[in-house]
Design a protein that fits this description.
By secondary structure, this protein is an alpha/beta fold. The chain has helices at about 40-45, 50-55, 65-70, 85-90, 110-125, 135-150, 160-165, 165-175, 195-205, 220-225, 225-240, 255-260, 280-285, 330-335, 345-360, 365-385, 405-410; strands spanning about 5, 15, 60-65, 80, 95-100, 130-135, 150-160, 180, 210, 245-250, 270-275, 285-290, 300-305, 340-345, 390-395. It has a domain at about 65-110 and about 225-410: Rossmann fold. The protein has 17 helices and 15 strands. The structure holds pyridoxal-5'-phosphate.
Length: about 425
């Protein structure tokens, strides 16, 4: 057996909240103007109370609303697959499993949080959402979710991607969203995620009918993603495994990593590993300090590993990993030694992605290539040590809309930063 499926009535009915179980309490977000801890009042112009409550909740489990489960059921539970052909090609005694989040409508893990975010906003009478997107994975996920609740969706897309990568824009428009290039104020700038966040927040803050939605980083986003790891736990049991020895994911803001890893956090035998690009090495080379989530300094200050809110990463193909900071929860785990972090140049991640495609068949997103690189190196280390390690990684998305990146790699045009 190489594929371990749960029935659709085995979908988890509550999210796991890691906040009470972190190695140390999270430091609070600070107001950008006063430097005082932000309260619900500060967040209400941007987020519904349902999500603000989750941002600070100390409940261990939070029920998933039935309406949300009904939509998640369109593609969940997602498969857990044993990558036996990859194992054989590597000649490793390790057993490699991946959780396939690429089967969602938008092709990544991001709809797992887009759906509940749209739900809580709709439930509180919000009729319009704004957001930012890099290459378009988050924007397309929110566009899909907004369509499910008849909410208008406006996406500020990093200009370089808007111009070079039309397909995800078309996907967003197909789901009914309107998409504009960011920064709006400077048509000569290629833009960045931080700038697009500033645009989306500036649009939402003054309007009563509009809220803002963020695709990663915040506690409630990571909470929604824990459905990944909760399913994976049940599926590993189906595969006859007691536990993974190591859990590996790519890390941009940290949501797919948290989603898979947090449900395993309580078991000290399980190593947790973040993989990031060496061109945007937030966890491996950033400083742990309070920083803004956006470029313009409009968002609350978050305690996180950061390269500085004005950091402009080189334009690597893994657009979803080009963020200057990391989720406070992920930063907390790394700071206190509960999670490891490694960084790779993109050439090594594409090499791994192509190896995966040629053995397992599926073509991964460039972001996912980072997790695959981490898993392959772990499997090779197990071979070296002669150990039967159980490796679990997150297959966060497919690469069908990133084929131009593969073309660059296969034809020697990739800048290997
Ligand atoms: C957005 C994205 C990521 C990175 O975001 P996280 O919040 O760190 O998970 C990774 N993989 C894919 C396919 C993505 O779309």
């Amino acid at each position: 057996m190489t594929r371990f499926d749960l029935r659709s009535d085995q979908i988890p009915t509550a999210w796991y909240n890691a906040l009470p179980d972190l190695p140390a309490p999270l430091e609070p977000p600070l107001h950008p103007a006063t430097n005082q801890p932000v309260g619900p009042d500060d967040l209400m112009p941007l987020f519904p109370m349902g999500l603000i409550g989750q941002e600070v909740s100390t409940e261990a489990w939070i029920d998933i609303p039935g309406e949300v489960i009904d939509i998640l059921r369109l593609w969940r539970p997602t498969p857990l697959v044993r990558a036996e052909r990859l194992e054989q090609a590597l000649g490793t005694p390790a057993r490699i499993y991946y959780k396939d989040e690429s089967v969602s409508p938008a092709g990544s893990h991001k709809p797992n949080t887009a759906v509940p975010q749209a739900f809580y906003n709709a439930a509180e009478g919000i009729t319009r959402l704004t957001t930012e997107t890099g290459a378009g994975q988050w924007g397309s996920s929110l566009a899909f979710a907004a369509a499910q609740f008849d909410i208008e969706c406006k996406v500020y897309m990093v200009r370089a991607s808007y111009e070079q990568k039309p397909y995800r824009r078309i996907l967003m428009e197909t789901w009914g969203a309107s998409v504009v290039p960011s920064p709006v104020a400077d048509p000569t700038s290629p833009g960045s995620l931080g700038m697009a966040i500033s645009d989306a927040v500036a649009d939402a803050a003054p309007r009563a009918d509009t809220h803002y939605a963020l695709g990663s980083v915040l506690n409630h986003v990571l909470l929604h993603q824990t459905i990944i790891g909760l399913e994976a736990k049940d599926q590993l049991a189906l595969a006859g495994e007691d536990r993974p020895d190591v859990v590996i994911s790519s890390c941009g803001g940290g949501s797919n990593l948290a989603g898979l890893a947090l449900p395993f956090m309580g078991d000290p035998e399980v190593r947790l590993v973040a993989v990031e690009p060496s061109s945007c090495p937030t966890l491996t080379e950033g400083a742990f300090e309070y920083d803004f989530g956006d470029t313009a300094g409009m968002t609350p200050l978050l305690p996180m590993y950061t390269l500085g809110h004005d950091f402009m990463p080189p334009s690597i193909h893994a657009g979803g990993l080009r963020y200057h900071g990391d989720a406070p929860i992920i930063s907390n785990l790394v700071q206190h030694g509960r999670m490891e972090a490694i960084a790779y140049p993109q050439g090594k991640t594409f090499e791994a992605a192509v190896r995966f495609a040629r053995t397992e068949g599926k073509v991964p997103a460039p972001e996912t290539g980072h997790a695959i690189r981490g898993a392959i190196d772990e499997a090779l280390a197990a071979k070296e040590a002669g150990e039967e390690r159980v490796i679990l990684f997150n297959y966060s998305g497919h690469g069908f809309l990133d084929l131009a990146a593969y073309d660059d790699y296969l034809n020697g045009r990739l800048i290997d930063v």
